[in-house]
Each structure stands twice: as structure tokens, then as C-alpha cells.
Amino acid sequence: MTSDLSVILPRVLIVSRRSVRKNKFVDFVGEYHLDLIVGYGAVPVIVPRVTGVHMLLDSFEPIHGVLLCEGEDLDPSLYETESSILSPEELEEIKRIHSSDTAIDKEKDTIELRLAKRCLERNIPYLGICRGSQVLNVACGGTLYQDVEKELSSKNKEGEDVVVVKHIDYDNYDGNRHVVNVVENTPLHCWFKDSLEDDKKEIWVNSYHHQGVKRLAQRFVPMAFSQDGLIEGFYDPDAYNPEEGKFIMGLQFHPERMRRPDTDEFDYPGCPCAYQEFVKAVIAYQKKISSATTIPKPIKPDQELDKRRKTIIRSFSLAKNIYLNGVRLSPAKESELEAGADFLESNTVLSSQQEKKLIQMGATVRNSTSYIEKLKMNEERERVAKIVMGKMSIEQLSDLKSFYQLMGQICSEELERKIQGIVNEN
């Protein structure tokens, strides 16, 4: 395998999370995410959570997929359209209990929401894990619970059989599990079907969050619910077909961390399927946009320009033959030198050194004396040319400029090549 994997593998953007280490900021992405992305055949491209990066997202193109995962709480102003049911005292208590998550990071919010919306606009594959699922829901107009425990508990206070689910345990990050009910005929059901009992459709998932989906955006369909009613997974059925490069999904739980103690063995065979199918979609998406990209054909000069170009080159070639071999041309052949002389007279402002070199070479001129005399007429000709061009239309001027730019480039290249050839021969 070539060492330049980025040339081969599709690119999955992942936004880092910022933390403080030894009084300095560090940006990081969990190793499980990176390992799974690489393992299934894509290359992770980390977008650093750095001020101003949200303005530079075009620099990360091409984007074949986006994976958004952990991070702090989303700014409530991005989704909260109604008055919060939580009192100021409850909000303060939430900040105290969840101090590591309630510090709003507006820069990360902006970066990730822009990436999510770019995916939705272009149908770029998107997988949201935990916070990433919340970003996806908010990007589509959904809302969030600012605190699942307080808001769902208050919502269910009148219920007789209220189930309290522990969605977060700061002392047992990887070990905390709770039951979710998987919805039939969804991708999640397909991935875990061999682990589901016929009568229950339940799995135990790793959970580490205190916020979650409140109102699911209209375009999405739930894939799993926790026993307190919280949506634990959702997807867009109209944008789900990994083989065709379609994948828009959010999972509130962490399938990448659902592993047995002190091993890398997954709790269920279906745990890595979200990443596997996501990367499958990413690869298909890359192939789809690559095949749709056409290589522009080189612009060819029209027949008239090409004819003039060949005439000028022929004039230069004859001049070189005169200079090198001292061959006298017949009157008919001498007329062919006119094109090169006229072109240089009308397009070249020469230094004294260039004049000397051209005189010595005799390139494209019939004799040096008449050529130098003609050069002295340039000033008058320039004045007359300005008068004439002032009467020309924009289209005529544009055509004239294009022609002379092309001829100038051809002349410069050919002249340099021929001069260098003469120098080498001598």
C-alpha cells in the first residue's frame, strides 16, 4: 500500500474537542473513532477547534464524510424557542453537577453546525455520536432537553410507573449502561437483530450525556428509545443507502465504547456497524463525485489564430536559417519574413541589449538598418494606434487583446527556445 493514503482514501472530517492540560489548551479526538474510521477504509481529517476555523472550511475540501462526536453542551440560544421550564435555581444546579459539560463553546458550535448544514445541503454522509446527534437535530430545526433527568422527571411526575434512567455516570464512563428499545425496520434493528430477543427488542448501551433530543426534527425517524422515553437514535430514511453514498444518522449512545471490561471485544457484534456502514457510504460518495467531475478540455485557438501562429513561426524559422547558413532567399520566400517582422514591430518594446541580439541574429528582419529605423517610428505608431483603438468596440478590443496575448506568448517561447538552441550549438 502506498504511503500517500490521502490520495486513495476518502476523507472524513472530525472536529476536535478542546480541553486544558498543564494550563494550556489541547485539542483531541477519541482513539476509538479514529481507529474505526481508518479500519474500515477512510482517512480521518481532524478539524481543530481553533478560533476562525469556521471561516476556513472550504480549505478542508474535498469532504467525503463528517463524523461529529463528543463535546460540551450546545448553546441553548441555538434551539430554544420557548421559555425553559427550568428555574434559575435548577439551571445553577445543573451547571454545578455537570460543570465539565455546561461550559458553552460557541466556536465549536459554529464549526460543527456549518459542517452539518453542508452535509445536509450536499448529501454528504454524516454520522453524529452523542453531541454529534444533537448538533444534527438542531441543524434541522429540532430542540434539546437542557437536562434530561430534570426535564423528563418533571414531565413524568404525574405518571404512575415512572422509569428513571441513569444517562450519565462520571465515575464509570465506559461501564455505565442502560436499556434501549430498538425500533423494527430501521438500520439499528438490522445491525443488532442477531442480539435481540423476539419479544423485547432491547440492548444495553453505553451512555454519557445529560442532554438529549426533545423535539425531533421532522425529517428524521427514531431508531431507539430509552425506557424514560428519550430518543437514543434516529436517521433520515430518504438519505440512507450506504451503497449509493447516502447516510444521515445520529446516535445518542456510544457504540464505539460498548466493549467488555479490559478488552477490545464489543458487547454485541452490531456495535461497529454504524461506523462500517458510514464509511461504506463515504467511499461510495467519493466515487460518485469523482466520476461526476469532468476534466476541462484545453482551450484551442480558432483556425484563423492557428493559421497566423504557424505563419509567424515559419517566418522565425526562415530568419534563423538565413542567420546560421547565410542562405539567400528567393523573392517569393523573402515575403514570408514579413509576418515575423511586423509582429515584432507591433508587439515588442526592446531594450538596447535585445536590439543588439536581434541585429546580430538577423532574426525575422530583412536587414538591421531598416529594422532599427522602423523601431524609431514606434512612438508615432503608438499615438496613431491609440486613436484607432479609441474608436473600436469593446468586443473588437477584447478580440485584439486576446490575439496579441496569445501571439506574444508563442513568440516569447519560440524565440527563447531558438536563441537557446543557437547558444548551445556555438
Automatic annotation (TrEMBL):
Pfam families cross-referenced by the UniProt entry: Peptidase_C26
Superkingdom of origin: Eukaryota
Molecular function in Gene Ontology: hydrolase activity, acting on carbon-nitrogen (but not peptide) bonds, in linear amides
Membrane-spanning intervals of the chain: none
Cellular compartments per GO CC: cytosol
Protein name as annotated: Peptidase C26
